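User:
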Amino acid sequence: MITGYIGSYTKENGKGIYKFSIDEDKKVIHSVETGYEVQASTYIAKYKDHLYGIKKSDNQCGIQSYQIESDETLKATNDVLPHQSTGCHISISHDGKYLLEAVYGDGVVRLYGLDKDLNIERFIDTHQQKGNGPNTERQDNAHTHFIQETPDHKYAVAVDLGTDEVITFSFGEDGFEQVHTLKVAPGSGPRHLVFHENGKYAYLFTELSNKVTVLEYNQGQFKVLETYQALPEAFDGHSQGAAVRMSHDQRFVYVSNRGHQSITVYEVLGNGEALKNVGCVESGGDWPRDFNIDPSDRFLVCAHERSGHLVLFERDIETGLLTMVDNTQKVPEGVCVIFN
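Assistant: Predicted structure:
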């Protein structure tokens, strides 16, 4: 069995963290169950045998850490809840010393320290982004949506939807220091990015314009190379870009489109400096907020925030194209997918 976890909202019927398993032979999602009931665990991240999740408890917000037991159940170890607003994205540094958090509502990034046992230990620093964009409804101020360590392990990169910026920081025990800012297309509303494993290129997905931009990365600085539309030319409805992921063999990039209810597939060309749109498939539910690809590269699992559908696709390793094989399971308000 292939196993993984889903983070969810808890506004209606969501429980926080779910656990799921895939039967590879039958090509079905074998089981879905509550992994840990916790409020507002909308993003989760794994490092070795620990899981980390956003947490809200009454008016206290921050991060909770979990030990992944031998049977893959979760045991809460501790939390740090020093804030009044919840984050939307978290990631762990390569050495397991730091946890990075992006906070959409406040437009800030936060830095936490982990102890030698990988438990969340302390809050270190926050950095406030400033600015806005031309979309007055969505870009009234900074809205930081993503933060992750760069492949060279020297910096952290944040993506701000409200200011149309990709921001690079140095980080450590003294906190954040902003070192570079890339302005992207005004009103595009960048959301998430994923790096090529060669560390030279990243693929930035915009929420408001629903496009993928290839970025060149070098020593903490980014440069725009090319931008690709994720929606069919004939589509004139409302859609918002959501997740962007890359196959483990680095040959394909995938993005999900909320509104068009689809996943678009790009072939990676050259050394990663260009993309080619090779297909678009229905996602199988309403509002495909997040998806991920299992370690074998055989399967893709997509969570739908509104309809709750947890959809299993089989990947063609050679073409990158997706075939829906199971659409029977549900995770209420599912918004983050990771594999164990």
